[in-house]
Amino acid sequence: MKVEEIAPDVWMFVGRELESVATAFVDGDDALLVDTLGGVDDAHALRRVLRDQMGKRVRIVVSTHFMSDHIAGLSLFPEATTIAHRHHRHAFLSQNRQVDAFYLEPQVVFDSAMRIRWGRHALHLLHNPGKTMDHLSVDVPSADLVCAGDNIVGNIVYVSRADPAQIRSAIVRMQQLGRRRVIGGHMGMFGAATLGNAVHYLDRLADAVVGIRTAVDSHEADARIASIAIEPCLAAGVEPSPFERHWHERNLEAIVTQSMFTLDAALAARRAHA
User: Fold this and answer.
1) Which of 9-18, 119-128, 209-218 has the lowest mean pLDDT?
2) CA distance 272 to 175
3) How far apart are the C-alpha atoms of 212 and 274, rounded to whole Å?
4) Alpha-carbon distance 152 to 150, whole Å?
5) What CA–CA distance (Å, rounded) separates 248 from 146?
6) What is the DSSP letter of 78?
7) Nearest-CA neighbor of 148 among 122, 178, 176, 128?
8) For 114-150, what is each residue's pLDDT tens digit?
9) Which candidate among 3, 33, 173, 206 keeps its CA 20 to 30 Å from the CA of 256?
């Protein structure tokens, strides 16, 4: 597991399982965690670092979204109060790889926003549905960062079982916060430009898929969609990481199997014939 000090009282943890991310905000001997990583081994390593090496007690766990690859460690912090959005069950039940053993009912749920004062920081929990209906953005102005969860995957997005338009809106809302640092649900921390890069990727991918779906029949369209390269979808100057390449391939699989962007193609055809 990678451990990085973001500030004297903010620590980021990147696990080996799917490069899932957790962020700890420290106040004296107490810690507030945003997410708890994606695998059992990573979650135990997270607890060892926080409890045994740093001597911190996790008092609060905030879930950016209730998918299994971000809640593996919930049961390892039984003294903590877990906070999630009211629609957390919708996210848990709609994921591709549900791990029931990771599920733990949150003690506190909310609808639109919540503010937590933690040491020198005020954490603003903002309902920002995108990848999932329960998604939160955790805005921390005093640390000049926002925890984005899975509304981005580095410089791209992952669209499976989601409305791409909703993901785009969620990213734009984060851009409006104006933070210089963005902590993703996977990979780690990025500069603010990654939000624009993710929007660019989503727009170019959508354009490519809609163009194919409006030009050829569905059988040929699926074959062409499956071969869309990542490079033309990326913003200028962005070099894809192996992780981003992998999730681009997963995007193409999801677009084909879930018949994504068919509505957008139909609307585009309607406008062309209007």
Assistant:
1) 209-218
2) 32
3) 20
4) 5
5) 24
6) T
7) 128
8) 999 999 999 999 999 999 999 999 999 999 999 999 9
9) 173
CB neighbour list of residue 95: distance below 8 Å, 6 or more residues apart: 67, 68, 132, 161
Q: With beta carbons less than 8 A apart as the criterion, state whether 144 and 181 touch.
A: yes
- Residue with the bigger pLDDT between 271 and 136: it is 136
Confidence band for 183, pLDDT divided at 50, 70 and 90: very high
Q: CA–CA separation, 64 vs 142, rounded Å?
A: 19
Query: What is the distance between the alpha carbons of residues 203 and 233, in angstroms, rounded to a whole number?
Result: 8
pTM metric for this prediction: 0.97
> Which residues, 6+ apart, have CB-to-CB distance to 154 below 8 Å?
184, 186, 187, 190, 194, 198, 241, 243, 244
Tokens 């040491």 belong to: 119
Query: Which positions ≥6 away from 261 have C-beta within 8 Å?
Result: 164, 206, 209, 210, 213, 255
Residue found under tokens 């649900």: 185
Q: Who contacts 129 (Cβ-Cβ below 8 Å, separation ≥6)?
A: 87, 135, 166, 170
User: pLDDT tier at 205 (50, 70, 90 boundaries)?
Assistant: very high
Q: Judge whether 46 and 17 are in contact, CB under 8 Å.
A: no
Share of the chain above pLDDT 90, in %: 96
Q: How far is CA 17 from CA 14, 36, 97, 246, 251, in A?
A: 9, 12, 13, 14, 19
